[in-house]
């Protein structure tokens, strides 16, 4: 079964940039877009209004059987546990492999539309961030930026072990992720391509009181990316929502606007 068509919010002026944002488990592209654009910055605008020349792409995951919930739901991959993200990690492989291929194809399409991968931003919320991080590190492109919120890093234990082993292990991490997801023959690891990936600036935000994805998982993702030599902007938020599992309005949206204007529009 193929992925549903992405939900598109087109630029209201000449299309100059594209941002691809992945929803969390149990949601979909249109629902995520609606919730995302309902939020406002301190200026009273939503993010699309801050960036009128941007095309916003909200892909939707497939419906697949969730092991932990025992029913079908929209999710990018099967997540067994968020208290121990290394438990039963093999369950993640099939979904992540499919999702990464899909997202990398979307990036390629949007890069052709705007003329360069450096004008494409990738990101996501919760499981969407986790999925987007895999696509980001498996790709061979320097993107405009990466923006994640309330997420984690799949296969973190194995990746941390690789990074502890020796200097220059960033290439081994990229090779491990590709091979682990069955992408080894589909896209090869190259030093030049990885170097471009590592030049991509990253923003990660996380609620201190998130009861679904613990703050320590967000910090772990941050530390892995920093260990790979990536420029990471990290923000912790108090009282993002009742359960902390969403972006904090207006503070986090303000921070994302500032980050994108400094890191992307200046390219």
Automatic annotation (TrEMBL):
It holds the Pfam family Abhydrolase_2. It comes from the Eukaryota. Residues 7-160 form the Phospholipase/carboxylesterase/thioesterase domain. Belongs to the AB hydrolase superfamily. AB hydrolase 2 family. This is Phospholipase/carboxylesterase/thioesterase domain-containing protein.
